[in-house]
Specification:
The chain is an alpha+beta fold and 358 residues long. Helices cover 26% and strands 36% of the residues. It contains 9 helices and 21 strands. It has helices at 42-50, 96-105, 111-124, 140-152, 170-187, 198-204, 222-227, 232-237, 349-357, and strands at 4-13, 16-26, 31-35, 57-62, 65-69, 72-73, 81-84, 158-162, 190-195, 207-212, 215-220, 242-249, 252-255, 260-263, 271-277, 282-285, 291-300, 304-311, 314-321, 333-338, 342-345. Strands 7-8-9-3-10-11 form a 6-stranded mixed β-sheet, sandwiched between helices. The protein has a 5-stranded antiparallel β-sheet with strand order 2-1-4-5-6, with helices on one face. Helix 2 packs across helix 3, helix 2 (96-105) packs parallel to helix 4 (140-152) and helix 3 (111-124) packs across helix 4. The longest helix has 18 residues, at 170-187. 36% of the residues are buried.
Length: 358
């Protein structure tokens, strides 16, 4: 196990600053996810940790060893890391055993040691029975596990993964998330994982760093970053959310488009506000609720019932449990209860943030 310490790190290409000053410690055995839209700087951050990029300023330590900074720059092969890329990058002419053994073979390790370590790591990734197969005889998920085993076989201090599941189909991607998480937990290894997929980040991470335009917008546990977003960009990027403009006064927020109000006893903000509501936090009923509306559309997705309810001049999205499609129909008058919402100052920043989101 080993921590990663990053001090005052920046990265520029000419006049374009891709990463703005970054200071953080990734702890021993922690599963860190760098999350954000394409071009935000997350892969550049990973590549500087790996040693494929040189920081413009700053220092990087793996454990207590300086690997980048000042006059020091260790190449990737001397940083004691394992790395898995988006493409599987397995050797097509080598069987699974030889693919995984390759990092040990180029270090001229004894054959007995190679055999013992390869067999152990193949067992961890559930590929022992495929040791003699060629990559073209494997599924995409199995090939990705070969790449993962190859990264782990030399027992690195740190495992770096750059969108390793993006080439897999949805069902396989879901199962691989949990496999990677369990392997990391079993080995007690520090992991830095890059993705633009919020579901992956939520499912796998101990801490998430949400990056946009080279700046960390927020870091924290999945619960913190989802339920207590630092700004509108974070709220909008993670999960489903709708924003409504309103006025906070006298213990409630009156939403202009709704022409109705929701209770706001905390009154942490007053005057013009932006209210962020996640559709799963609205309960729809025929008998209980504070808001009145009419169902305009319903999309039954099996596990959920995705609805649009007309409230005043606005369409409000409600994600109800799947069974509710038997209880409600388009055209029904319903009552809504907003169980949870987030209030931001209406300073126009949301529009600016959403412009640079993509």
């Amino acid at each position: 196990m080993s921590s990663i310490t990053i001090k005052n790190l920046t990265k520029s290409y000419g006049s374009v600053q891709v990463l703005k000053e970054f200071n953080e410690v990734f702890n021993d055995g922690e599963f860190i996810t760098l999350l954000g839209p394409s071009g935000c700087g997350k892969t550049t951050m990973l590549r500087t940790i790996a040693g494929f990029e040189t920081p413009t300023t700053g220092e990087i330590y793996i454990g207590d060893r300086l690997v980048s900074g000042g006059k020091t720059f260790l190449p990737p092969e001397k940083r004691d890391i394992g790395m898995v890329f988006q493409s599987y990058a397995v050797w097509p002419h080598m069987n699974v055993f030889d693919n995984v053994a390759y990092p040990l073979q180029i270090k001229h390790k004894p054959k007995a040691e190679i055999k013992q370590k390869v067999e152990r790591v193949l067992s961890i990734v559930h590929l022992s029975q495929y040791a003699q197969r060629l990559p073209n005889q494997l599924s995409g998920g199995q090939q990705q596990r070969v790449a993962l085993a190859r990264a782990l076989v030399a027992q690195p201090k740190v495992l770096l993964l750059d969108e390793p599941l993006s080439n897999l189909d949805a069902k396989l991607r879901e199962s691989m998330r949990f496999e990677i998480k369990e392997i990391a937990k079993e080995l007690g290894i520090t992991v830095v994982y890059v993705t633009h997929d919020q579901t992956e980040a939520m499912a796998m991470s101990d801490r998430i760093f949400l990056i946009n335009n080279g700046v960390v917008q927020q870091s924290g546990t999945p619960d913190e970053i989802y339920n207590r977003p630092a700004n509108q960009f974070v709220a909008d990027f993670l999960g489903k959310v709708e924003f409504f403009k309103g006025v906070a006064a006298d213990g409630q927020i009156t939403i202009g488009d709704w022409k109705q109000a929701i209770a706001y006893p905390a009154m942490e903000r007053q005057g013009k506000v932006e209210v962020a509501i996640r559709p799963e936090n609205i309960r729809m009923s025929k008998t209980e609720g504070t808001l009145r509306g009419v169902i305009e559309t319903m999309y039954y997705l099996g596990d959920v019932n995705d609805c649009r309810v007309r409230v005043g001049d606005a369409l409000v999205r409600v994600i109800a449990e799947g069974y509710s499609h038997r209880e409600f129909a388009v055209g029904d008058e319903v009552l809504l209860n907003v169980r949870e919402f987030i209030v931001f100052d209406d300073d126009g920043s949301l529009e600016e943030q959403l412009k640079i989101k993509t």
